[in-house]
Specification:
Elements lengths: L1 H15 L7 H7 L4 H12 L3 H19 L4 H7 L5 H12 L33 E6 L2 E11 L4 H15 L2 H8 L5 E9 L4 E9 L10 E5 L2 E9 L4 H17 L2 E3 L4 E5 L10 E10 L3
Antiparallel strand pairs: 1-6, 2-4, 2-5, 3-4, 3-8, 6-9, 7-9, 8-9
Helix pairs in contact: 1-2, 2-3, 3-9
Length: 288
Amino acid sequence: MEALIRMMNALDYMETKMEEKLDMEEIAKKAHSSTFHFQRMFHFLTGMSVAEYVRKRKLTLAAQELVASSARVLDVALKYGYDSPESFAKAFRRIHGIAPSEARLPGVQLKAFPRLSFHLSLKGDQDMDYRIEDKESFTIVGKSLAVSCVDGENTREIPKFWGASHADGTVRALEELAPGELCLGVCLDMKPETGDFNYMIAVKADEDKATGDLVARAVPALTWAIFTSIGPMPDAIQSLFGRIYSEWFPATGYEHAGGPEIEAYTDGDTTSDEYRCEVWIPIIKKAK
């Protein structure tokens, strides 16, 4: 409950700063969290980045001001942080479908993106099995894909990436590269401010195993919250990620450590209702 109240405080603060430049560090402070954790939480709770939300709110307020006042387009553009009428017009058209100069025309329809709010949801209809483990650093070797969270691209492209990697023999080659190791799906280089990250299908292996189109990456020593996913892929694991951010983090004294997120896959029928795998989230104790 306290965590969601703090998120609401951050939203309230953001609303008072719509005419100023976005200061992510100050916004995160209102939520008593790191900027990385706040942005990651915000995305999972709302489905958009903080920057995308602020942009939509600014353009909603700008449209309302153009309709309700005689202010010049240039003045409204500058007020909401655009350095030129051209950049403002481009962003305005992307949201509203018309030029700012057309906003006052009779019968014109404009988009209104309302301010968000967070509500506590007591679910408890399904257990979340997890454990906390400290792990030393290790190296992964695998194939990488650049992907984005924007508009749910990752939920579509990552399953396709797995399908292609099974079909072209990449997964089997990785398993042969490191017998006995679990096949991993690893989210790296996450940029919550844009939603971009790299996704690797990989195994734990020495760096010299990275040949051909395979790459090696280091995973630092971290403390992990390790969750059990039960059910068919990819729906079960995608649902679990959502629950981790909407239910587990707000109920605990932890926040995201900013490192990679890992999916650890076991052998078995991934379409089965009983299929089990794990999600590893890097964590730190939240500062009081």
